[in-house]
Amino acid sequence: MRTLALRGGGRVAVVAAEWRDAFGVVVRGRVQLELRDGEPGPVLERDAGFWLHGTGVRALRNPGHRTAKVRIITPKAKPGTPKAKPSAPEARPGTLKAGPGTPEARTGTPGAGTGIPQVRAGARRSAYPHAPHRTVENDMNSTNDTALAAGPVPGRTRRFLGLVGTGLVATLVAMVVTTLAAALAQALGVVFEIPDGGETIPLPGFAVVTGLFSVVGVVIAVALLRWSARPAERFGWTAVALTAISLVPPFLVGAATTTVIALLGLHLVPAAVMIPTLTRSLRARTA
Fold this sequence. Notes:
The chain is of the alpha+beta class.
């Protein structure tokens, strides 16, 4: 019998061989099953029993912040397993010696001295791995209670750092491309003057605004990677929606038509850089 401790946000991979005859019980906190395709499965509450053999579940996760614990019970012998015969025909306490070829008549505890887990009378059905966990736990006399601690996997930190690094590089690229596009528009005669304020937008202003909103996009991507089951898809929809909203203000400032068209294009340029880059990065880190 083992106790698996999952720290907040922790994940532990499921090794099929270790769960072949194992029965798990959540004794503290909550545990979420990670399916074979990486999708989140059901969340198991306290006292929920489960087995994983043949289910395709590839990992156990702790979706909360407090440590969760799972009691893993593995019977050493199944019903119907032949009992080990003694190596010498010596009479043992509780055993009546019989003649040659005659099965021994046992009067002691079933399984005593044979290496088979002893099961008390009236509770034989608890040797099955799908029996109620408290009965199984009480009836297994030959078990070892070991604690396994699983914290946040190092790969998760690398995923976040990799996404942030990719996002910051894409932010710099978006700032440069947007500023160059604004300079090209000015060279073609577009005046970025806002009649409401009577001011002209300087070229550095495009870089600052682009950098600010691009960093916001990176923060959204990191948050979705941490808490969403489908971060790439949800980031795509969120970024497209925010981009669409950002196209509204140019129509409200009362600028010239050429200025409005140029501003719309300058909103789409950084979006064309940031959205595909972060979406691909999220897909790669959740594959």
